[in-house]
Amino acid sequence: MHALIQGIILGILTAGVYALMASGQTLIFGIMKVVNLAQGAMVIFAAYLSYQLFASFGLDPFLAIPITTVVMFALGVAVEWCFLRPLRREDKAELSLLVTFAVALLLEGVMTVVWSTSVRSINTSYANSSWTIAGYQITLVRLWAFLLSLVALGVLYFILQRTGFGRAVRASVQNPESARLLGVRSEAISALGFGLGSATAAAAGSVYGLLYPFNSGSHYDLISRLLSIVLLGGLGSIGGAVIGAVIVSLSSAIVAATISPVWSEMTFFVVLLLVLIIRPRGLFGVASRGAI
Fold first, then answer.
1. What whole-number distance in Å separates Cα of residue 247 and Cα of residue 233?
2. 207, containing H or E segment
């Protein structure tokens, strides 16, 4: 029972980080109907940026997030403008898979040249600090990462629900043709939306570098997990991405704690398979363009 509860605590804390990563990916799909296969590479690239700021200037990874967020937002806008906007609208859904995968490989090449393929990690003075409450350990880094993810998701929710940009995004998701007739500039919304989705990778990347060792090839495993989460929750649903992250993180942590860490790696895909057999669109997916 002790191992089970400890696994549940670990799963909940980890879920926040995965939810932050997946929310950006599902936001991009909701706006542009583009499955961003480069999201994992963007998270790892942000982790390298945070690592470099810490190694060169001693800047704490949490304090580096505003810097990495600006960089990743600009990168996302540039990717949309240079690589996705030229695609024909009728072919974008299919060709974007190839384009974003190519962007992921390009980022991997840049990371390999700049930082090599050696495994890196961000080792702060508090990296191994933890609290023990009622016999259960709570790692401070995971707790702060969880709280940061809640704040970032709250900001994202506020942007989408309470700002003019958010209303334009939701209009574009629900009925893009009507939104254009009402004066919504779909190209600008797509660029800003892709930038915003990429910016979530900045916060997630800084946290990822604190929690896990990484190298330039770490994005392959990461993107498979993120795709499992967004497909489980339903493509285009940010709420679904959060629920999907909680489900897969909890199930993986419980299996690791009670059975074996070896089997926990399969949990992402087993849970996804079971849900998609019952509900092919995912838990909160809908037949329309998006569900933001």
1. 9
2. helix 186-211
